[in-house]
Amino acid sequence: MEHGRLTDTYVAAVQHDLVDLPEGTTLVGVVRKPTAWFHAAVDENRPSLGPPRTLLESTRETVDDLKMRGICDEGAHNAAWEQVEFDERYRTYIETSPEAQAALSDLEGRLASGESLALVCFENTDKKRCHRSILRDRLDERA
């Protein structure tokens, strides 16, 4: 059996038909606290694969501080990632959280069985860094 294809995108691209996904791709949200309109745009959501609340809060506080200093939204977002060590902290989370590990194992099994998946979050990665890129890389490593 052929391995499923793994892609990622952001919710606005899905809502406005700006992304070209393979036929039958399951849209898997990876958002800790999705809105109702987010739920309407995806097939399912895996909150355990969203960044932990404490990481989101420290990132948000750092972004707000940087914006108060006159840095644009995208610049503040990306600089905050470095300051709070987002990449390292998120990787540690997904490797140590039993809930995240279970969700990863489920997605790995689905990909191995031939299902194509698209990880979906809020950020347009052309402008801002997003945890779903880390998550996609991790799933690719484990495949």
Describe this structure in a few short sentences:
Pfam families: DUF488-N3a (PF22751). The protein has 143 residues and is of the alpha/beta class. Helix content is 53%, strand content 11%.
How would you describe what is shown here?
There is one protein chain. This protein has 143 residues and is α/β, with parallel strands linked by helices. The protein has one domain (6-142). Helices cover 53% and strands 11% of the residues. It contains seven helices and four strands. The chain has a four-stranded parallel sheet with strand order 1-4-2-3. Helix 2 links the parallel strand 2 (26-29) and strand 3 (44-45). Helix 3 (53-68) crosses helix 4 and helix 5 crosses helix 6. The two termini are 14 Å apart.
Overview features:
143 residues; alpha/beta; 4-stranded parallel sheet; 7 helices; 4 strands; 53% helix; DUF488-N3a; DUF488 domain-containing protein
